[in-house]
């Protein structure tokens, strides 16, 4: 999924062909090799997030900073345009940071199960708690995209495989801990903020997946709740 905006949607590509899908989505000018000079609809918010001067005007330095962020997190096209996808990732990061060390403040993850891994789809966060005591986290996760949603409810870890490779997508899934019909916690080699999301698993950084592997065991509870933005 790429970043979308309203400006410059009607443009010819370098081959002279009109991109009808881009037009339909209202995408920013496709200048993949460089930077756009257009200010996006979330220019000020993105500037503030990146610590840039907040003036709502696109500068070359603004574009370089936005482009670097997009490249790091796999946002396409990475042309420095402050569109809805880029701001959506940043806004989620802000909300995750605001949670601090009290991820179960609303009490939605059960505290009567002993050790349990919690997944808040709305905030794309996971943590391990024991009763009301926080054991590890919260950490960012990348859950299922639209059409491949990570299923909600109370589950249990039923199989663990440290060097698993997906038989469907033929991709490595290190430190896999399966909790619901092929959906698992596992490490990924891309940003956990990479849109639009996984095929149902709860993707984690390698460090966090290793820690989950050391703290959880077969039979431990997993509770998934909320709704991932965009699903």
UniProtKB/TrEMBL annotation:
Annotated signal sequence range:
1-32
* Pathway note: Cell wall biogenesis; peptidoglycan biosynthesis
Q: Which GO terms describe its molecular function?
A: transferase activity
Locate the transmembrane regions by residue number. none
Q: Output the superkingdom of the source species.
A: Bacteria
Mind telling me which InterPro entries this protein's record contains?
LD-transpeptidase, LD_TPept_cat_dom, TAT_signal, Transpep_catalytic_dom
Name the PROSITE patterns on file: LD_TPASE (PS52029), TAT (PS51318)
Q: Known EC number(s)?
A: 2.-.-.-
Residues annotated as catalytic: 186 (proton donor/acceptor), 201 (nucleophile)
Task: For this UniProt record, give its keywords in alphabetical order, as a comma-separated list.
Answer: Cell shape, Cell wall biogenesis/degradation, Peptidoglycan synthesis, Signal, Transferase
SUPFAM superfamilies given for it?
A: L,D-transpeptidase catalytic domain-like
Enumerate the Pfam families for this protein: YkuD (PF03734)
Q: Which residues form the L,D-TPase catalytic domain?
A: 114-225
Enzyme class (EC, first level): transferase
Q: What protein name is recorded for this chain?
A: L,D-transpeptidase
């Amino acid at each position: 999924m790429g970043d979308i905006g309203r400006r410059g949607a009607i443009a010819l590509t370098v081959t002279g062909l009109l991109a009808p899908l881009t037009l339909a989505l209202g995408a920013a000018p496709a200048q993949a090799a460089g930077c756009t000079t257009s200010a996006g609809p979330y220019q000020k918010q993105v500037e503030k997030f990146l610590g840039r001067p907040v003036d709502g005007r696109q500068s070359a330095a603004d574009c370089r900073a936005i482009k670097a962020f997009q490249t790091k997190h796999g946002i396409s096209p990475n042309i420095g345009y402050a569109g809805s996808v880029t701001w959506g990732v940043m806004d989620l990061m802000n909300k995750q940071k605001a949670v601090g060390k009290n991820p179960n403040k609303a009490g939605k993850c059960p505290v009567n199960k002993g050790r349990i891994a919690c997944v808040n789809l709305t905030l794309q966060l996971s943590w391990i708690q024991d009763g009301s005591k926080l054991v590890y986290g919260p950490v960012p996760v990348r859950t299922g995209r639209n059409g491949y949603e990570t299923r909600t409810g109370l589950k249990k870890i039923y199989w663990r495989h440290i060097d698993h490779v997906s038989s469907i997508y033929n991709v490595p899934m290190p430190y896999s801990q399966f909790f619901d019909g092929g959906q698992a916690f596992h490490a990924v080699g891309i940003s956990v903020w990479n849109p639009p999301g996984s095929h149902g698993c709860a993707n984690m950084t390698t460090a966090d997946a290793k820690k989950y592997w050391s703290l959880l065991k077969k039979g431990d509870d997993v509770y998934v709740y909320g709704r991932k933005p965009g699903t």
